Amino acid sequence: MNIDLPLTLLGGLSPATFMKRHWQKKPLVIRQAIPGFSAPLERAELFDLAAQDDVQSRLVIQTPEVAATPWRLKQGPFARKALPALKKPGWTLLVQSVDLYDARVRALRDQFRFVPDARLDDVMVSYAGDGGGVGPHFDSYDVFLLQAQGQRRWRIGRQKNLDLQPGMPLKILAQFEPEQEFVLDAGDMLYLPPRYAHDGVALGECMTYSIGFRAPAAGELAQEVLQRLAEQARDEAGDALYPDPGQGAQSQAARIPAALAQFAQSAMDKVLRDPLAIQRALGEYLTEPKAQVWFESSPVEFDANQGVCLDRRTTMLYDDAHVFINGESFLASGRDAGLIRSLADEQALSGAQLARLSQPARGLIAEWFQAGWMNHPLEK
Ligand code: SIN
Ligand code: CO
After folding, report:
1. Which residues, 6+ apart, have CB-to-CB distance to 159 below 8 Å?
2. 299 burial class (0-12, 13-18, 19+ CB within 10 angstroms)?
3. Which entry of 102, 157, 183, 199 is 20 to 30 Å from 364 by CA?
4. How far is the CA of 138 from the centre of ligand 2 (A)?
5. Average pLDDT in the 151-163 region?
6. CB–CB of 280/332 below 8 Å?
């Protein structure tokens, strides 16, 4: 992607300017970010997704008549009959990770690839009847809220006080102090940085797509990386038992022998001395498929002449030394590395590009294809 080219999607800003001025800093309202946008997913298709066991969905119902709990939250899946009547006001259905299930929504998500893939979380689609919304709240992550159908009135504010109402089943701000208000039509979009207070209320039937960007927490990353390093330590240090033929008789029986502490230290050192170990563990973690994703092996024989493209559920990233795909890491260098990185960036390689790969690298691609991680272009 040319990051210096102005994009209609960003209201005429280039990705470079948007990232500098707005990302994690200040909101942006973009009128007709996608001119003439028509929601790729019909209401009925969204309801079908919400009925599936492996799709994460939630239903938020406003019950202002119940003063103590004016909000109700239910977790999916939802049979069609379990959803409130369309004419009933004040409810919202939220369906997570729709980009995993629908190629058109995935294509929409790909328009935001000026942000690193490692930051992208998912596209959540919400359907609301008149007056529906999830209440005034803040999110911890950056989000683009694309109006997909109908209208939604947004009120937003950059308040410092982010205390929540106690005892609610969802995050509702105790005190909401909106500073700006606007109505978004289909094709309009609002970017919000993390922790920016907002409240979107449907004006009639309304669908909103949230393209969300998760930022990993430091503690979470440390835990995930250390867990992988621990597994590596176990594999590498093996089952060798602590040998102490030189252990003398000990008068202080409870004292840990210094040699035993040294033995533990050198078992750890082996892993920590590997300069690539942390990078490898990080890439494997970042490309781990989401819990609801599984792959079925391809029924089609791999034909290198046809080229490949990534299956939309595949996550592929790279660093200077490795390529990561769906939680696995591979060392890559030279021409192979260049081509495989291009597969990660462009999400496809042509037959001619595959022909330039070394035999072992092409063998790897064939394995990934057979595992269902990639397809021939027309099957995507
Ligand atoms: C919605 O789509 O209803 C809510 C999205 C949000 O406020 O984050
Ligand atoms: Co929100």
Report:
1. 173, 175, 176, 177, 197
2. exposed
3. 102
4. 6
5. 97
6. no
Domain residue spans of the chain: 8-213, 304-379
CA 315-118-362 angle, to 5 degrees, is 35
Q: Is the per-residue pLDDT at 308 higher than 50?
A: yes
Ligand 1 neighbour 136 (Cβ under 6 A): no
Please check whether residue 341 is in contact with residue 333, taking contact to mean a CB–CB distance below 8 angstroms.
no
Q: Is 208 in the pocket of ligand 1 (CB under 6 A)?
A: yes
Ligand 1 pocket, mutate which of 130, 145, 214 (most atoms under 8 A from CB): 145
In the reported structure, the alpha carbon of residue 209 is separated from the centroid of ligand 1 by a whole-number distance in angstroms of 8
Query: Does the pLDDT at position 380 exceed 50?
Result: no
Q: What is the reported pTM? A: 0.94
Q: What CATH number belongs to 8-213?
A: 2.60.120.650
**Residue nearest atom 5 in ligand 1 by C-alpha distance:** 210
**Minimal CA–CA distance to 285: which of 225, 213, 217, 345?**
225
d(CA 55, CA 93): 13
Note whether 319 and 283 are within 8 A (CB): yes
Q: Given the CA of residue 145, which atom of ligand 1 is nearest to it?
A: 5
379 confidence band (pLDDT: 50, 70, 90)? low
Closest ligand to 92 CA? 1
